[in-house]
Design brief:
single chain; 157 residues; alpha+beta; three-stranded mixed beta sheet; two-stranded antiparallel sheet; 5 helices; 5 strands; 49% helix; rod-shaped
Length: 157
Amino acid sequence: MFRFEHAHFLFGLVIILGLAGLYYVLRRQRNSVLNQFASSGLWSCLMHSLDDKVNKRRIILWLSALALIVIALSNPQWGIRKEKIEIKSTDIYVALDISNSMACTDIKPNRLERAKLWTESFLRSLADDRVGMVFLRVMHFSITTYDRLWLLHDVCA
């Protein structure tokens, strides 16, 4: 499948063709005026800027470069088509402090048990999300798994 993302930029090619036609008309007018005074071979020897071969090459290169820029701006695309993809799962990490300070009983039963209860209810509320657990003590270690049942059974138990 081939397409242009910004096809409206391709109208610039028509402008470039118009510039080429304008150059051709102006060059013919200039040559007819100059040929009234001397032949074209004499003018190219007297003034190198009036050499038709050099000027043709220069204008062809400039117009070709402009045409390629216009084509690049239109962003040609092929091979893959765009589709909107709905994300059905997310990656979630739960950080849980398991240090001795969590044994404090200012929250009933204690902070660690309350955090376990919240984590368990949170994990049950998730659908197809991937869950990772980070346990913090003096040094941390992490577990990443797709198995929520393992997390519910072994970690929250």
